[in-house]
């Protein structure tokens, strides 16, 4: 038979008390525990009214995410909608596509690193801030140390989902790099890694251009404003340490925010018995 649409009518005073109107204009009423008829014409909301039902809205993991979408659209529309949604996931085939088409930033990163290391060793390139050059780059172990720090920062940023420059900033300061140079280098690292990701996502058709353009505009304005303000403050105070304080405050605020949000989401998932994302590291056939 053809499918029919039923209308839920709520009580204005008690929204959880509802009546179900059938396509014939009459309400459903419970004749017995197993029989329901669509022939009620009354308008009462009393407890003994057979057409009044109590509706409980389920919360938690039952009506969230994909469950809510499939329940809302029904068996006809839900499969197509969910298939289109699943196509946006990054799968193993996407990594094969990147590998086969040369979308790999490792050769570029290694080439740039070797070029800069050679330039620092032969003296054709220096690290300087306000005409104060750092010239102790003749020792090979110093360059190897900085390369290892960059690799570790990349691994940590990949595991935690943070920008590599966000980790390189305090690392450079600990190694004695001037604040201006540390800030500029870490920012360039973030731009470099982010640009590679942008190209990959765009080629994989995972890139919402209007959404990204909005963020690019906001980030550019914020960066120029912040740079101008910090430059003015340094000129007034004569101390570049203001960059260190700003960086430390940003890291502290980010740690509190990320930790708080993460703990909140974890507690909510535990209460709703949702999947935490952890799986068995052993292969399951």
From TrEMBL:
Subcellular location: Membrane
Protein known as: Sulfite exporter TauE/SafE family protein 3-like
Stretches assigned to the DUF7910 domain: 2-57
A GO biological process held by the record: protein ubiquitination
Keywords, alphabetical: Membrane, Transmembrane, Transmembrane helix
UniProt gene name: LOC106779058
InterPro entries registered for this protein in UniProt: DUF7910, GH, TM_pro_TauE-like
Pfam families, A to Z: DUF7910, TauE
TM segment ranges: 143-169, 181-204, 211-230, 242-267
One GO CC annotation: Cul4A-RING E3 ubiquitin ligase complex
Top-level taxon of the source organism: Eukaryota
Record bears the keyword Chaperone: no
Membrane topology: Multi-pass membrane protein
Entry's family note: Belongs to the 4-toluene sulfonate uptake permease (TSUP) (TC 2.A.102) family.
